[in-house]
Design brief:
The chain is mostly helical. The chain contains 10 helices and no strands. Helix 7 runs antiparallel to helix 8. The N terminus is likely disordered.
């Protein structure tokens, strides 16, 4: 007779696959937000800058499939990586901001609420910033995938690689990506998301550091004294 875990395994496998595919589906929806339906040139908003954004984002998503598989395949790893154990509110905020982000693509493709934001110099700068941020994210996640795929009951404090530069390299990279995104797609909604994200992340960092201090004790205090939070030597 199959065990309970055997009966639930197919369902869990489907859930993992759905979680892995959802970021790609979201990018597809974002792409459709640019389309001018019924127009002779339906993809005129898919220019060099928006196209570069989707290409870079696709590269990051493909790179992080392994990381996401390790996270979603374990309920414990998912709770730990998402921070839902000590900060469920940020998870909810992140979901809200993901939906709000779709308005950025609608603004870029259709509304153009503040045309002055669309300057080629700013967009090129945004593209460079976004590319650097994604490189930082992939570098950080290379270390995180090893951490979360191991035995979480015997985990070690990460202090090497990007974690030797700042204590929260993933949050730093995400905020940098949002800055690049705001410059690149020239939307007031992107700037609102960036400012909101800064407030959300600062709160998240405070809660996470309290949690990490409980988990790692004095070793985290020593690590905290010799590293900055987000900006090396500044903050």
């Amino acid at each position: 007779m199959p065990s309970v875990s055997d009966r639930f395994q197919p369902r869990r496998t489907r859930s993992v696959r759905l979680a892995l595919l959802s970021p790609f589906a979201y990018q597809g929806i974002a792409l459709l937000c640019l389309r001018h339906w019924g127009s002779a040139t339906p993809w005129r908003a898919l220019d060099f800058f928006s196209g570069a954004f989707f290409v870079l984002t696709a590269i990051r998503l493909v790179y992080e499939v392994r990381f996401n598989r390790g996270i979603f395949d374990s309920r414990e790893a998912l709770r730990e990586a998402s921070g839902s154990r000590y900060d469920p509110a940020t998870v909810r905020w992140a979901n809200v901001l993901v939906v709000v982000n779709l308005s950025v693509f609608l603004d870029y493709g259709h509304w153009h609420l503040i045309p002055a934001l669309r300057q080629s110099v700013l967009q090129i700068t945004g593209l460079a910033v976004y590319a650097c941020a994604l490189a930082g994210l992939m570098w950080t996640d290379t270390y995180l995938v090893r951490h979360f795929q191991g035995d979480l009951s015997h985990r070690q404090l990460m202090t090497t690689g990007p974690f030797a530069v700042v204590r929260h390299p993933r949050y730093a990279s995400l905020l940098l990506a949002k800055l690049g995104f705001s410059l690149l797609l020239a939307s007031v909604f992107a700037w609102i998301v960036l400012l909101t994200s800064i407030l959300v992340f600062l709160r998240r960092i405070r809660l996470e550091e309290n949690y990490l201090r409980e988990v790692f004790g004095p070793s985290y205090g020593s690590y905290k004294e010799r590293t900055s939070r987000l900006l090396p030597g500044i903050y």
